[in-house]
Design a protein that fits this description.
Elements lengths: L5 H20 L12 E3 L12 E2 L2 E2 L1 E3 L1 E4 L2 E4 L8
Parallel strand pairs: 1-4
Antiparallel strand pairs: 2-3, 5-6
């Protein structure tokens, strides 16, 4: 899903709400490691002022994330060559 508008942000939040309710219903809330979740904005229009939540907990937004020894950064360089 490309998050290119405020409408897309709202749709993604609705999906997060569904996952949170499902986890709560199945008593899996403690299994969802929200502290390990991050929002990473890459390219496109900057919608970094939108905040995502699971329940009442805000998912932290970061400029870079490291996962499985792969470093992802918000800043991407574009080359015309």
């Amino acid at each position: 899903m490309d998050i290119t508008s405020a409408h897309n942000c709202i749709l993604l939040q609705k999906v997060l709400d569904v996952v949170e309710v499902w986890a709560r219903d199945w008593l899996l809330v403690s299994v969802l490691s929200i502290g390990k979740c991050n929002v990473l904005h890459i390219g496109g229009p900057c919608l970094d002022n939108y905040r995502y939540y699971t329940g009442h907990i805000e998912i932290e937004s970061k400029a870079q994330c490291k996962d499985l020894a792969l470093l992802l950064q918000m800043i991407c360089l574009h080359s015309n060559t």
